[in-house]
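[job 0412] stage=fold_complex status=start
inputs:
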Amino acid sequence: MPLEVLTDQAAPIVRLTDVSKTYSNGVVALRGLSFSVGAREFVTLLGPSGCGKSTVLRLIAALGSMSAGHIEWPREKRVSRFGKRHHDIGFVFQEPTLMPWATLFDNVHLPLRIAGESRKAARTRVEEVIELVGLGGFERAYPRELSGGMKMRVSIARALVTDPSILLLDEPFAALDEITRSKLNNDLLGLWAKRKLSVVFVTHSVFESVYLSERVLVMSKRPGRIAEEIRIPSSFKRDEAFRTSGEYNAFCRATSAALHRAMEG
Amino acid sequence: MDDRSSFEPKRAEGGRDRGGEPNASAAIVVKILAPLLVGLIFLGGWEAFVRLDHVPIYIVPGPLVIAHTLISDWQTLSSSLWITLENTGIAFAAAAISGLALAILLAQSRLIELSLFPYAVILQVTPIVAIAPLIIIWVRDTQIALLICAWIVAFFPVVSNTTLGLHSADHNLLNLFQLYGASRRQVLWLLRLPSAMPYFLGGLRISGGLALIGAVVAEFVAGTAGSESGLAYRILESGYRLNIPRMFAALVMISLAGVLIFLALTLVQHLVLRRWHESAVRREN
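[job 0412] stage=fold_complex status=done
writing structure:
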């Protein structure tokens, strides 16, 4: 796979170097954490609860300051057409985090509205991402009328509406049932392929991380750092067959073992 | 006042689709009939007591006499009602606007909130009857003095509720706005104010009734000072003249006005929130 090698060699989209974070209450969440994410790469951050996975995402999104280290964006293509760097990051929280008083359309429109684009000007792009996540026809529904899985899709559509080059997801499907979750996982992979994004996906599920990503970064217990890295070549097509294959099981075993080592070490 | 208006989501018991319909309408009938029946029994007992015990009319008039007075004195009473309602309305509008504005100001910074909020509390906890005489002395125009009194009573629920609401915006949504580089004004308009809406409306519902109470109390204190006289003045005047039926009739009007204000504001709250807020959503279980 020459393409694979190429993206690895090319400059990463974001690089974290020796990042540490100490909260004001003295808790050291991260210490000496380093990794980078390639362009169009799908990376999962896997670790036990409280290891600082979410903190890493928040730091990448500049929603908080780090105590030491630095985060670079070597490609610096990050100034989007809005002239604001913010818009090159899409963020999906653990909760759908929708505005209950706004329709689905207005919720997805929000990032563009903040950038000063009117409903009318943004219409095509908003409708396009709503269609993309499979919610076409629900534009005028209010969040309370949607199921948990649908709300999560709205949240993803909102993250994609600015056409970011990197998507950060913080255990987005943890609260959903198994069937919905696996459907959304497949859809996310589809989106990733279609939109040519980089994805950083935080999860505490070994199976999810193996199924989704090209690279699993296993985090240690607090203070968090990257303990091990497991590569899952993208030559394995991610579908139901992969889920039941021997290779998948082997990857899961290896990842699980790495997670255990990380939690003990 | 009972908080359970007819806008409470109706819950169909049993869960059968068709069986739910008659059940629900039966529930509504009960909801109206039950309190009506209690009222009728109470009024009937009152009337019977007054008649059988030969209670003189200048001590306790019976409901029929009061109803009769309400009709025969309608001219005088309705013009007084109008004056009181006008004061209530203006004071309420002022309370709603100033309360919202102050809440927005308080939400701008912790320092402003800490420095100003205690004074709003002081204004609230000081009994209006105690300050009303001072205000009536200081302010030459009696009507304006009345309005100030009613406003003082009415504005606090709006301020405190709305301030709470402005602070209750979802934390992740705040982060999202921050991620997209939203300005303070955008956060206020697109996030904080909509989040505060249910709280603001709840505050209005309380403050509507309080505005009426404030207006009436201030009229009492002002007594005959005003040339135009509201319902409280009618009550005082009727008391001096031992025209007790008219006193009761005026009292009935004040209560009815209060109930109507409350219902109207409940309706407003329902109409504004019905599409999204849990409190206004009809549930079918």
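[job 0412] summary: Residues 1-9, 78-84 of chain A have pLDDT under 50 and may be disordered.
[job 0412] exit 0
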